[in-house]
Amino acid sequence: MSGYDVIIVGGGPAGLAAGLYTARMDLKAVLLDRGPLGGQLLNTELIEDYPGFESILGSELAVKMGDHARKFGLEIRDFEPVKEIDVEDGAKVVRLESGEELRAPAVIMAAGGLPRYLEVPGEKEFWGRGVSYCAVCDGAFFKGEELAVVGGGDAAVEEGDFLTRYASKVYIIHRRNELRAQPILVDRARANPKIEFILDAVVKDIKGDQKVRALDYEHRGHVTELPVGGVFIFVGFVPNSMLLKMHVDHDDAGYITTDRNMQTSVDGIWAVGDVRSQLTKQIATAAGDGTTAAVAASNYVSALKDAARA
Ligand code: NAP
What we know:
five-stranded parallel β-sheet; 20 strands; 28% strand
């Protein structure tokens, strides 16, 4: 037995908020993340919509959130990938890729998700050679080049705007006539002279030699070749709910459904942040989810301890 009260899987804003609160409530908590702390914060350059921080780098906020939780005694194990989460006789078992096994009565699932693939020819072949899913990570490799961004949501429009600091031109290619992104982000992109929207256009394939040279898109039955040096794909997100070995209720897209206390359909497992089915994925909502789950998990663990003493 590892003797934890709560195991938190995922070190983005939702997991770190849960970690801060559980540690402050004097629970024995551990937070695991497969990489460095921060989750999606690390894929965002500038954050301008987290209350109290008019403008802060994603990487800086990640460090601040980690330090804050550690200060209250949270044990953090980064670069510690989780293989699966299971339930054995009521105990939650978290198996790590390393072979180690952790146990606790409560698990807060904050594992976020991964970018969705476009699934067109050339995408896999040119991954890392012009195809990217992270503008902050890779944008600087494309100084002076023309780039394509695929998608019509917040990420595509915001990251497309970010890429213009390096690229000479950014085409945002979206499959429908209407963008899903928030109007404030669309207005900013439309005001950027380096951005051109190509709407109602479906990317068919990505082509090149040693690296990406062009893509083909179809618009009203007509295929056009667009010469670009890179293709940044932002077509959504696939939640990491499959880490849970048992059945947990989820929506059609695989996001875990919870009650208002972030409780999943499995007793003693909560889901928070981007892995949870909800209206929006914001840092503020993730932190709120983590806080709610931490309080609920604390009540749950206290009730179990009281029952064991009675
Ligand atoms: P999203 O909102 O789910 O948008 C995905 C976009 O990709 C949609 O425009 C969708 O088209 C398109 N798409 C999906 N599958 C496709 C395919 N196979 N081929 C071509 N296009 C495809 O995803 P997101 O932009 O990654 O954002 C995820 C979440 O993070 C959202 O909740 C968002 O609000 C949040 N976020 C917020 C901010 C911010 O507030 N600053 C920044 C980034 C992300 P359709 O529109 O036709 O479905």
